[in-house]
């Protein structure tokens, strides 16, 4: 089940920081490594979250939607004439020295000539994917402890619907099933039977994924996930069910029979679906409870006239995500073990795209389907661990964008002080020795990496394609597009000299040393492969500037001290002036010249 898919303030507490560092380790009870992978895109802007997967030898990169509701991973094949235009080039089997087609056998569906195994997937929003099965080496990126592994995947020959029109290349299937990438890795014994997803919050996006076990936070709670469902022919569901029993709005339980959440497929947690969908009775009760709590807000039309959205004006065009909980009620999902998942407003609202300061319900009626479907919006800023080995799913509220940054900084936390204000720069030449030769002087908090790059194409050809190149560099360096800024580009004969700046992400105030060295070495050693249209490149020079964004107290320390001193001096001066004035007034009132008449005092009668 997939619909056209798809960041909370930082927690400064030391316990949170320690937990995040602990999170990145593999499960201490298991000797297996894990594959740590970054998530990209935004739930509501793009309709999905993607990760990067490399297939073949040499590796060919793909942006894949992470989908717990799909059981096969697939990408467009080079021979596909009915595939849309996507983010990356199609997979070319003939260019991979390790590719093998999966021959027809008794365990698969075969093509008409009974030569190759085939697959076919159809989804709820009427899109579909068809193709052949192949086997090749999958690589999980440079953040992964897990080495590349051989696995079976789909090579698409036909796409329809949203799968055809979306920018993402394909699907990474994380559901239960023999073709699922998780099942294949578990079957090989290279990871524990578990994986985790953490989706970024409203307006931030991104996040993190870990294939394999992690050391779960101590305050993560779990609910039972039963893979056995009578609805399926073999009794086993490919979906991840949870034992939902109640929904509370503003602390009040909705008047619903708990069995409503156990109809058909039950309550399914599906990362490939954008919103949440409830059976009719549950949706009506939820909608009415929300409207009752928001009776003071004006209800407005939704952004799309083709849909009947339930939207509210907050009364202010400048309301931000952190203030939504003051306006909208909290919602709780209560499970069979009485554990509660708290949903803040960003977990059930989406921003109105046409009216500033207005928000709409991201929970809808599931037509006439009795399944309760909980999509990505429900688990924004929530670490979700799918512990398949023990048939349970864990939830932990956190800042998923910070976890994403932690995954990206593979060297762990930075202990830099940021006191070094010198600019570090170096000419770059290609040489052996790895990234260690791009050493920085101690641990500094980096505010900008400046890169001078020479391209073997002329200015007139580059100019209309510069935005495309900017997006490509961001993808290759595994950073957000907003972090790559074009400073200028000039012509050098038939070549172009381009100057870029890499800046911290919106969720961070600096770039760590590890990340900076990784970016510089990737470009200096030509491990970033540009499309043929941009010719050859050379990193001519790089420069690192420390972060100038000091904490407020540090930045304004002298101003504050000077202001305090001035206030003290002015206060003392005013006090002294007042004392002198009072003293003079007292002297004036007590002295009377001899010739001045003194008014007679009224005599009071004596009592006898």
From TrEMBL:
Active-site residues per Swiss-Prot or TrEMBL entry: 67, 270
Region (Disordered): 1-31, 407-436
Keywords for this protein: Aspartyl protease, Glycoprotein, Hydrolase, Membrane, Protease, Transmembrane, Transmembrane helix
CDD domains, per database record: pepsin_A_like_plant
Top-rank taxon, per record: Eukaryota
Residue ranges of domain Peptidase A1 in the record: 49-396
Pro residues bias locations: 1-10
Gene Ontology process terms (BP): proteolysis
SUPFAM superfamilies: Acid proteases
Membrane-traversing stretches: 557-581
Classification via Pfam families: TAXi_C, TAXi_N
A GO term for molecular function: aspartic-type endopeptidase activity
Biased composition (Polar residues): 419-433
Family: Belongs to the peptidase A1 family.
Name of the protein this chain belongs to: Peptidase A1 domain-containing protein
């Amino acid at each position: 089940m997939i619909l056209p898919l798809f960041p909370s303030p930082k927690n400064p507490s030391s316990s949170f920081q320690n937990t995040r560092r602990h999170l990145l380790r593999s499960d201490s009870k298991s000797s297996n490594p894990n594959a740590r992978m970054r998530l990209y895109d935004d739930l509501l802007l793009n309709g999905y979250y993607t990760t990067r997967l490399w297939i073949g030898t040499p590796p060919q990169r793909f942006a894949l939607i992470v989908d717990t509701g799909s059981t096969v991973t697939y990408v467009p094949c080079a021979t596909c004439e009915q595939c849309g235009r996507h983010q990356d080039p199609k997979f070319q089997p003939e260019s991979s020295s390790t590719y093998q087609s999966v021959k027809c056998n008794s365990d698969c569906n075969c093509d008409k000539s009974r030569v190759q195994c085939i697959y076919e997937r159809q989804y709820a929003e009427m899109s579909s994917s068809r193709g052949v099965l192949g086997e090749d080496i999958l690589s999980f990126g440079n953040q992964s402890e897990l080495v590349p592994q051989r696995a079976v995947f789909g090579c698409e020959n036909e796409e329809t619907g949203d799968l055809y029109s979306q920018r993402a290349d394909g699907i990474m299937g994380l559901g239960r099933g023999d073709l699922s990438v998780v099942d294949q890795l578990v079957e090989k014994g290279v990871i524990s039977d578990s994986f985790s997803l953490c989706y970024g919050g409203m307006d931030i996006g991104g996040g993190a994924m870990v294939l394999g076990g992690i050391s779960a936070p101590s305050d993560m709670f779990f609910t039972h996930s039963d893979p056995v469902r009578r609805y399926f022919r073999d009794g086993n569901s490919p979906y991840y069910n949870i034992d939902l029993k109640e929904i509370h709005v503003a602390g009040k339980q909705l008047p619903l029979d708990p069995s409503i959440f156990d109809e058909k497929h039950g309550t399914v947690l599906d990362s490939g679906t954008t919103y949440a969908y409830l059976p009719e009775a549950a949706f009506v009760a939820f909608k009415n409870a929300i409207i009752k709590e928001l009776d003071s807000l004006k209800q407005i039309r939704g952004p799309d006239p083709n849909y009947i959205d339930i939207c509210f004006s907050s009364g202010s065009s400048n309301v931000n995500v952190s203030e939504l909980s003051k306006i909208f009620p909290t919602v709780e999902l209560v499970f069979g073990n009485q554990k509660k998942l708290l949903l803040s407003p960003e977990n059930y609202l989406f921003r109105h795209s046409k009216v500033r300061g207005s928000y709409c319900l991201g929970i809808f009626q599931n037509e006439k389907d009795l399944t309760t479907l909980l999509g990505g919006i429900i688990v924004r800023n929530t670490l979700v661990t799918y512990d398949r080995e023990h048939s349970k799913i864990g939830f932990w509220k956190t800042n998923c964008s910070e976890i994403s940054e932690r995954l990206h900084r593979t060297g762990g936390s930075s202990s830099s002080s940021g006191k070094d204000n010198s600019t570090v720069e170096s000419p770059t030449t290609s040489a052996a020795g790895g990234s260690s030769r791009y050493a920085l002087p101690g641990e500094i908090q980096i505010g900008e990496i400046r890169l001078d790059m020479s391209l073997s194409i002329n200015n007139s050809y580059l100019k209309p394609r510069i935005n495309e190149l900017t997006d490509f560099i961001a993808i290759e360096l595994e950073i957000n597009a907003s972090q790559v800024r074009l400073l200028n580009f000039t012509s050098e004969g038939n070549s172009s000299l381009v100057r870029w700046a890499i800046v911290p992400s919106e969720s961070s105030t600096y770039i760590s040393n590890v990340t900076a060295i990784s970016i510089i070495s990737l470009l200096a050693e030509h491990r970033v492969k540009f499309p043929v249209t941009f010719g050859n490149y050379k990193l001519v020079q790089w420069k690192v500037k420390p972060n100038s964004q000091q904490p407020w107290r540090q930045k304004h320390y002298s101003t504050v001290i000077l202001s305090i001193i001035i206030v003290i001096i002015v206060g003392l001066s005013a006090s002294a002036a007042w004392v002198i004035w009072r003293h003079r007034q007292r002297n004036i009132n007590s002295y009377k010249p001899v010739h001045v008449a003194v008014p007679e005092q009224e005599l009071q009668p004596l009592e006898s």
